[in-house]
Design goal:
By secondary structure, this protein is mainly beta. It contains one helix and seven strands; from the N terminus they run E-H-E-E-E-E-E-E. The strands form two sheets. Strands 1-7-6-2-3 form a five-stranded antiparallel sheet. It is globular, with a radius of gyration of 13 Å.
């Protein structure tokens, strides 16, 4: 599979439900042996196979239609191998935190935590 945007995440951007620069956006490491991407998934509560603790994206920018953020570091991560990263808006409640992007094609993926 290649990188995907979740349909409902795109809808939330277009309707103003997600603000890249104003909302808390996080990145979760995912084991695809446990999680399979589906466009039907809308909220963090649909995500399984999370490895470690999701990290908050900082220094977010938007330029020429591209959303960017500073690199994040995951420390003391153990567990299953990581084959994907899921970006989502954190509302503090898994059932209302919209999924934005599924990334499984990137430098250094897959990775085995140690």
């Amino acid at each position: 599979m290649s990188n995907q945007l979740y349909d409902k995440g795109r809808e939330a951007f277009l309707s103003g439900g997600i603000s890249w620069s104003g909302d808390t956006i996080k990145a979760a490491l995912v084991d695809t042996g446990t999680y399979t991407f589906s466009q039907a998934h809308q909220f963090l509560s649909s995500l399984t196979g999370v490895v470690g603790t999701a990290q908050t994206l900082g220094t977010k920018t938007v330029a020429s239609g591209v959303a960017d953020a500073a690199d994040v570091t995951y420390t003391a991560v153990t567990g299953a191998s990581v084959e994907a990263v899921v970006i989502y808006k954190d509302t503090g409640v898994a059932g209302t935190s919209p999924l934005i992007a599924y990334i499984d094609t990137a430098t250094n993926l897959p990775v085995t935590p140690n």
